[in-house]
Backbone:
């Protein structure tokens, strides 16, 4: 596992190590250049409340990723369904956070908002104190590509591509055609390393339909990790797996957190799954109601 | 990069999309074939028209013509001498041709054209269309001993030989004359009804009774001929299944009947001996034209001024030097000569309606075929919409992984472009192959359907002429690809607009 240390930024060494290829890694401070109003945090949870009053929600230390007073409402045929009703959440760098909630509690929506797949109706999402939810589309695309890694319940691999190609998609997205072709070998090597890390190096040429559920999720994790993200967002990563395979996947995720120091936010409805995390928060009826430091 | 990878994979895994561009392929192939064939025909036709007509035709508006062609040619040369290569005077008059086939006299309307045998060949391709090699070199209105072409010298492929032409010439004339003499003798001796019975051998030959002449004492048809005439091949033969059957051959005699000058015109007629056959492969001309020496026609019509000995002519055909501007010369001449007496046109003006009709036909065909490709475009649109719906989740994934809306859009635009390229490329290959083997295909279709696709009885060509113009092909291909791209714009926009969360939830 030693070499995996070179692939990820560690908790202990905030400045990112130069990747083994010598190529500048996805810039850790890429988001620094991003424009946007800067909210100077005056509160412990990193939120600046519009009224200036302290939120009555539970606060945490300002973290790498934080959500302030998030509300989100879906409209279905003129009926408004409020999903999130003012969520405050802060994720610390290097933390493994689990969000637990019943289905329909809005936990996936929250994860999508954190991962910039959607925009909150109200409230802000901040990355290291900088607001990111109102950025231009291209900047959001860049953050999704380089800063966040996404893992889904249904794996969501592209059926036309092999495992290796699926893992390389984020690299292809971040690089222009010429750059990609110039660094092709390097890219392939990196994807292979990641696949080895998740234990899939024997399935490089297989199509997704030829893989088992556990293998699919490993491939999806490899894809999420290939661009050296700072935060891994996992949406029910074990929801579609049998308990034994689910445990293996969880152990893999846990190892990523423990050994590499990757910040992980996982959403699940299963308390036993959430037990694996450093910290567990509960989402009930669109609000964070309970904080539970499983390993505090 | 992922765009190209995905385009390529979609192309290789979605056969339904390939099915949707079959109509593009067929449209492109058909357009290429139709344009090549039309262009081939047009080119062939223009060549022939031009060859028949010379560059500029200086005509009198009256059938009476104008006097003193030499003076006119002098004036023309004075106006536009630098551009003129050659000129020849002609007399044109409508008339009737009579000849005997078996026992029956046949009458055909003809355009009688008096030509100058020395200069006619200089202004147009006239001599190329004759059947005797010597006449092609230098035209003569004297009957040749023999040696007329048996194989069509203009055919650019295999053609059925014209066996009867081997007999043509003086030999044919002598044989006919001897038969005629025998016939007269037998008629004289047996006097009446058994005559037909006694000559079974002769009756088998359709030419046995051709060319009857009044028994002129001083004229021996075995040794001498009347004034020479060159008839269009459509007047002397008919074609069945690609084989020409001749009613008359060089050596036979025919009668011409025509109006004289003067008011009211009188009718005169004279006997001529066929010395060659004219085949321009434009059926309109081949079944209408009869060429005679200009002097003989002028005399027959009374067009010679008795005081000066100079003849009247109807027209002067002018050939320009290569590179000369036809329209400019025409305009100069129009300015110099009184328009109420003289009609001065280029060959294109002269055949304007025909050429315009052909180009109109080509344009309409192109519009129709292009509409077919447009219809194919809607097929692509529908299939693409289905593919976008099918790929909704994948689009969501790509967006979740950081792909921009523009990137997602370009996947489908690129896919459309690739499909268009494949469709147009296959169409191009099919079209070119079709053109290459068009005659074999026409034969095959004819054999299968029992109906000749390309009937040489009508067209006087043995093969379908084709010209592949690279520009036209380029336009067709880029047009087809344009349509494929246009058809993929709407689905691509839809894909780009998909909301990632909704796309991911889509099952």
Residues:
């Amino acid at each position: 596992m030693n070499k995996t240390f070179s692939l990820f930024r560690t908790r202990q060494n905030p400045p990112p190590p130069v990747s083994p290829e010598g190529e500048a890694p996805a810039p850790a401070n890429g988001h620094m250049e991003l424009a946007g109003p800067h909210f100077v945090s005056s509160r412990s949870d990193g939120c600046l409340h519009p009224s200036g009053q302290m939120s009555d929600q539970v606060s945490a230390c300002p973290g790498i990723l934080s959500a302030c007073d998030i509300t989100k409402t879906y409209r279905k045929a003129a009926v408004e369904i409020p999903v999130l009703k003012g969520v405050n959440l802060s994720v610390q760098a290097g933390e493994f956070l689990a969000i637990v909630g019943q289905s329909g509690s809005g936990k996936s929506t929250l994860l999508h908002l954190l991962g910039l797949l959607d925009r909150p109706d109200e409230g802000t999402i901040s990355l290291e104190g900088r607001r990111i939810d109102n950025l231009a589309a291209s900047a959001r695309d860049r953050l999704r590509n380089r800063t966040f890694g996404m893992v889904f319940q249904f794996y969501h691999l592209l059926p036309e591509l092999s495992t290796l190609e699926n893992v390389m998609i984020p690299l292809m997205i971040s690089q222009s055609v010429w750059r990609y072709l110039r660094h092709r070998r390097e890219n392939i090597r990196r994807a292979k390393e990641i696949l080895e890390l998740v234990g899939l190096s024997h399935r490089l040429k297989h199509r997704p339909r030829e893989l088992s559920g556990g293998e699919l999720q490993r491939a999806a994790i490899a894809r999420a990790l290939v661009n050296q993200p700072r935060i891994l967002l996992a949406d029910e990563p074990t929801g579609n797996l049998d308990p034994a395979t689910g445990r293996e996947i969880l152990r893999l995720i846990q190892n990523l957190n423990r050994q590499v120091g990757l910040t992980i936010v996982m959403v699940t409805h299963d308390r036993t799954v959430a037990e694996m995390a450093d910290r567990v928060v509960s989402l009930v009826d669109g609000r964070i109601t309970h904080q539970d430091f499983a390993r505090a | 990069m992922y765009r190209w990878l995905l385009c390529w994979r979609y192309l290789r895994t979605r056969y339904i999309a390939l099915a949707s561009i079959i109509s593009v392929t067929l449209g492109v192939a058909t357009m290429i074939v139709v344009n090549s064939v039309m262009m081939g025909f047009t080119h062939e036709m223009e060549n022939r028209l031009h060859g028949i007509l010379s560059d500029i035709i200086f005509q009198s508006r009256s059938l009476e013509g104008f006097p003193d062609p030499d003076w006119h040619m002098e004036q023309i040369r004075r106006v536009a001498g630098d551009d003129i290569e050659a000129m020849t005077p002609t007399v044109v008059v409508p008339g009737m041709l009579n000849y005997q086939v078996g026992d029956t006299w046949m009458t055909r309307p003809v355009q009688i054209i008096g030509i100058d045998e020395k200069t006619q060949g200089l202004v147009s391709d006239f001599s190329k269309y004759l059947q005797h090699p010597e006449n092609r070199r230098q035209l003569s209105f004297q009957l040749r001993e023999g040696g007329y072409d048996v194989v069509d010298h203009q055919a650019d492929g295999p053609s059925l030989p014209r066996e009867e032409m081997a007999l043509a010439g003086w030999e044919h004339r002598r044989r006919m004359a001897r038969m005629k003499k025998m016939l007269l003798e037998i008629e004289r001796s047996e006097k009446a009804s058994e005559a037909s019975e006694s000559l079974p051998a002769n009756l088998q030959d359709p030419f046995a009774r051709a060319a009857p002449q009044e028994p002129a004492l001083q004229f021996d048809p075995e040794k001498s001929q009347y004034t020479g005439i060159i008839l269009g091949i459509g007047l002397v033969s008919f074609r069945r299944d690609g084989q020409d059957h001749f009613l008359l051959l060089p050596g036979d005699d025919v009668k011409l009947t025509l109006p004289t000058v003067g008011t009211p015109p009188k009718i005169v007629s004279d006997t001529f001996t066929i010395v060659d056959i004219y085949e321009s492969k434009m059926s309109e001309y081949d079944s209408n034209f009869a060429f005679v020496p200009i002097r003989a026609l002028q005399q027959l019509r009374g067009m010679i001024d008795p005081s000066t000995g100079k003849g009247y002519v109807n027209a002067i055909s002018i050939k320009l030097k290569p590179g000369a501007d036809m329209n400019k010369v025409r305009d100069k001449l129009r300015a110099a000569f009184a328009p109420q007496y003289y009609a001065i046109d280029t060959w294109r003006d002269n055949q304007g309606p025909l050429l315009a009709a052909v180009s109109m036909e080509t344009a309409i065909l192109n519009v129709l075929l292009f509409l077919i490709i447009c219809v194919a475009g809607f097929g692509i649109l529908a299939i693409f919409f289905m593919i976008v719906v099918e790929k909704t989740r994948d689009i969501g994934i790509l967006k979740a992984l950081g792909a921009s809306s523009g990137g997602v859009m370009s996947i489908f635009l690129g896919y459309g472009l690739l499909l268009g390229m494949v469709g147009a490329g296959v169409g191009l290959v099919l079209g070119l192959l079709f053109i290459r083997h068009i005659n074999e295909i026409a034969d095959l279709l004819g054999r299968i359907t029992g109906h000749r696709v390309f009937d040489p009885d009508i067209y006087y060509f043995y093969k379908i002429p084709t010209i592949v113009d690279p520009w036209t092909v380029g336009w067709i291909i880029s047009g087809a690809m344009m349509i494929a791209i246009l058809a993929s714009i709407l689905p691509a926009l839809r894909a780009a607009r998909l909301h990632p969360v909704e796309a991911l939830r889509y099952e």
